[in-house]
Amino acid sequence: MRRWRLVVSSLVVAVVVASSWLWWVSAHSLRPTTRVDGGSLVLTDGSRYTLTSLTSARSLIDRFGATLTPVAGATFVVATVTYDATGVVNADTYSCRLTLWSDQAPWSAAYYAAPQPQQSDCRAGSRGTVVAAFEVPQRYLADVSGVGFNDSTGTIRDVVLNATVN
Description:
By secondary structure, the protein is α+β, with helices and mostly antiparallel strands. It contains one helix and eleven strands; from the N terminus they run H-E-E-E-E-E-E-E-E-E-E-E.
């Protein structure tokens, strides 16, 4: 009888520890971020970004004239950002990876070749307008909270410019 009590007690302790850990992980991001208000930011590498728009779309037309549609139950969120990377000193470490953030997690950009003169990526030593499209489940559209930038030379690499989808 004592063995069964030991087994049951061990299982109860394991369930309590596991559920506590799952609760903590869901309440605390494991990716440290800096959140910024105001529509624009400057990263530690000298690059500057301004969020021009954050909109949703049911379909997109790329620079080749092809119509892109999201998977069933999803919608595109399109971030348009003007950037100035002329002040970037080290082009080897420069990164312009945009992510879309919700209160829970980030989304990576879907492949999208933006129509000219917009760009799909940033280049060190240049300036312009970059467009990134994200495929987001419609149920999470209201949870979108900003656009993230990779600060490759900073101590906290994810810098999120707070914004909501228009």
